[in-house]
Amino acid sequence: MPKFNPKHSLAQLGEPYSLSCSPTRVSAPQWLAFNPELAAQLQIPEVFWGTDTGLGLFSGNQLPDWAKPVAHAYAGHQFGNFVPQLGDGRALLLAELEDVNGQLFDLQLKGAGQTPFSRRGDGRAPLGPVLREYLVSEAMHALGVPTTRALAAVLTGDWVQRETAEPGAIITRVAKSHIRIGSFQYLAARGDTVKLKTFADYVIARHYPACADSDTPYLALLEAIVAAQAALIAQWMSLGFIHGVMNTDNMSITGETIDYGPCAFMDSFNPAQVYSFIDTQGRYAWGNQPKIGSWNLARFAETLLPLVSENAERAVELATQALQQFNMLNETEFRRLMGIKLGITEPVATDEPLIRDYLTLMVKNNADFTLAFRLLSQSVTDSSAGAAGLFADNNGWQDWAIRWHKRLAEQGVSTADIALQMNKVNPALIPRNHQIAKALEHAANDGDLSLFNRLHKALKTPFELSAETADLAQPPTAEQCISNTFCGT
């Protein structure tokens, strides 16, 4: 069995990949949340679990000897505009921890103060975005979506200035990697192919070791990351999730959801929906996420061209072939996920019209995305029940339901089993925007974490609904609807 033995493989690469940097002390740290299940998985000694010693670690005020903080360097396209140096402006990688299964995970403080990459920023995080990331990332994990996770959150006792002065906080997050597409862009922009190759070899060895056995390891790396991103974005789409800021510096090379800023789960289904206050053009709308994912991967492929082949034309040809797999992989996985949500155990290409037409029906009737699938299990035996109540266009619903029932009948599976399986993949509970906003308001204004804690507990079991959590499954009223979410930087 692995033991607690922190590693520092990224830090050991040295510059330019990362820079040593210590957290900035905070004045009066207090616990907000701690994740003992994750701590146990990571084999973190219990001396850090909700204790003053842990508060010293997770506030950055008193790091143990095994923590070697570094700020990772990266570049990125932000809303399509390339910035050659970004980097961890408010985050510090403390160590890499081996979990009980032998998997290595990054341990990172976010909001720990200024770093060499802060670009005049304060390096801090407001309470609201910290609690939002804690809730949403843990909810995503419970939904089965690859994601960074939240280990701890602490109040700093200091204020941070955004539009107004807000309480400061720090989140400790865990991921297989915090390396991004922008990490490769940073090295490529410097024109140092030797260091780029060193970094690519590091990523292969740590995250994609099977690529090392390929005759073309860097092309294999590109193909693996294309597949990971295609699957991830399909999962987002199937849950009505909008990342919000799919800049290349916010896209992980391991296919994990990372950098929860102005993210949101949709209420009423609208493919053009955005929530981010800064996305005024809808670049990162729900329906644009596959296109942006493909665009981001093209930027990643550009960085690898010198490694893929010494022949520039051949490198472009091979990379283009790899990139062309994205749409097929993403569409196939989206069809599979959406088909299963409709109760189709083995979706095929001929199911696409049925899926598409249901989504169109949802848009036309302003149906809630989550409820339109969750309630559908009640419609398996009675087309006038369950989801039917969401559609004012009853004729449109009935026409679609006839086709749907015919498809379900072809499977030779009992309606009870179909309904049961549908409830295992269609969540009853998601982090509703209006509930998150209320929880954050209570925490910031009154120091009241009761709703935050209630949401956090309920979202651990998103496919289960009880009398105690039924109110959390309700969509917002017109007055409760949230149109904008914010990043916190």
From TrEMBL:
<feature type="binding site">
    <location>
        <position position="259"/>
    </location>
    <ligand>
        <name>Mg(2+)</name>
    </ligand>
</feature>
<comment type="similarity">
    <text>Belongs to the SELO family.</text>
</comment>
<keyword id="KW-0460">Magnesium</keyword>
<feature type="binding site">
    <location>
        <position position="122"/>
    </location>
    <ligand>
        <name>ATP</name>
    </ligand>
</feature>
<keyword id="KW-0808">Transferase</keyword>
<dbReference type="Pfam" id="PF02696">
    <property type="entry name" value="SelO"/>
</dbReference>
<keyword id="KW-0479">Metal-binding</keyword>
<comment type="function">
    <text>Nucleotidyltransferase involved in the post-translational modification of proteins. It can catalyze the addition of adenosine monophosphate (AMP) or uridine monophosphate (UMP) to a protein, resulting in modifications known as AMPylation and UMPylation.</text>
</comment>
<feature type="binding site">
    <location>
        <position position="90"/>
    </location>
    <ligand>
        <name>ATP</name>
    </ligand>
</feature>
<feature type="binding site">
    <location>
        <position position="250"/>
    </location>
    <ligand>
        <name>Mg(2+)</name>
    </ligand>
</feature>
<keyword id="KW-0548">Nucleotidyltransferase</keyword>
<feature type="binding site">
    <location>
        <position position="89"/>
    </location>
    <ligand>
        <name>ATP</name>
    </ligand>
</feature>
<feature type="binding site">
    <location>
        <position position="110"/>
    </location>
    <ligand>
        <name>ATP</name>
    </ligand>
</feature>
<feature type="binding site">
    <location>
        <position position="123"/>
    </location>
    <ligand>
        <name>ATP</name>
    </ligand>
</feature>
<keyword id="KW-0547">Nucleotide-binding</keyword>
<dbReference type="InterPro" id="IPR003846">
    <property type="entry name" value="SelO"/>
</dbReference>
<feature type="binding site">
    <location>
        <position position="173"/>
    </location>
    <ligand>
        <name>ATP</name>
    </ligand>
</feature>
<feature type="binding site">
    <location>
        <position position="180"/>
    </location>
    <ligand>
        <name>ATP</name>
    </ligand>
</feature>
<feature type="binding site">
    <location>
        <position position="259"/>
    </location>
    <ligand>
        <name>ATP</name>
    </ligand>
</feature>
<feature type="binding site">
    <location>
        <position position="87"/>
    </location>
    <ligand>
        <name>ATP</name>
    </ligand>
</feature>
<protein>
    <recommendedName>
        <fullName>Protein nucleotidyltransferase YdiU</fullName>
        <ecNumber>2.7.7.-</ecNumber>
        <ecNumber>2.7.7.108</ecNumber>
    </recommendedName>
</protein>
<feature type="active site" description="Proton acceptor">
    <location>
        <position position="249"/>
    </location>
</feature>
<keyword id="KW-0067">ATP-binding</keyword>
<keyword id="KW-0464">Manganese</keyword>
